[in-house]
Amino acid sequence: MKKESFQNMSLEVAASTFAALGSEQRLSVLLTLVRAGPDGLTIGELGQRSGVTGSTLTHHVKLLAQAGLVTQQRQGRSIICAAVAYDTVQALSDYLLNSCCADAAETDHSHG
């Protein structure tokens, strides 16, 4: 997913991105990458820091990448993973909060 704004985010995109965050292990992997900063981590470093390793880590990184939350880039023999979630997470937040209280009954606070 490219940079999304809440105005053009579909319900389907929002749901699939929230679903990608719906696993404790995936959320841990994403938080580990956010903490590491824009340079990211190798798969090995990511596994050590997050406590998620092997094929489980590969599976979770793949799902996070499909949701547009992380990138994977080969550098020599290593695969570097990095969080790119900042704009996406902000857009998800905006998507939810933009309509806050839109259907709430207006209350007349005057006691006239």
From TrEMBL:
Molecular-function annotations in GO: DNA binding; DNA-binding transcription factor activity
Boundaries of every HTH arsR-type domain copy: 6-103
Residues that span the membrane, as ranges: none
Record keywords: DNA-binding, Transcription, Transcription regulation
Top-level lineage group: Bacteria
InterPro entries from the UniProt entry: ArsR-like_HTH, HTH_ArsR_DNA-bd_dom, Metal_resp_trans_reg, WH-like_DNA-bd_sf, WH_DNA-bd_sf
Transcription found in the keyword field: yes
NCBIfam families xref list: HTH_metalloreg (NF033788)
Name used for this protein in its record: ArsR family transcriptional regulator
Lineage summary: Bacteria, Pseudomonadati, Pseudomonadota, Alphaproteobacteria, Rhodobacterales
